[in-house]
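haha ok so turns out i had the wrong file open the whole time. this is the CORRECT one, sorry everyone. sequence first:
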Amino acid sequence: MELAPDPVDGTPLTAEEYEAVRAAVAAGGRGGAWTLNSLFAGWRDVVEDVEEGYGPCAPEFDDDLSCRDALGRAWPLLPPRVRAIRRPELDELDGRFRAATVPWPDRPEEGPRWWHRRIPLVLEAEAGLPRPGGWPLGWEILPFPKPDGVRVVEWGRP
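then structure:
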């Protein structure tokens, strides 16, 4: 597993810490060939997609958040030193995601799986397709009107 040494003292992780990371990721990932680094890379990819303007529909967005779900399940199982090493990176990605999204109306912004209760600020939609309630197709299934802060940008215009 590729994990940098402790940035404070440079001490490499012990074999026990590596094994604990593997076990935590396996438990959090619920199968698959995940590593801690791949969970972070997946979360980074989602954050970047949301920052640029999110194109897929709401169910796909929910599915894309599965890497953050797995990271959230694994996080409390990680050795404390590994959490301390990776905490700044997680906080930075979570902060960027919050900045590129708005919370669901009338829902708590924090708590377990808070990332599922947010909507990208910019949603992409194919030009000329209907927009029920102002939402791009595939987003109208949300149980509330499109928040004013959410912009829909069209693609596919000649």
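The first helix runs from residue 15 to 29.
again sry for the mixup
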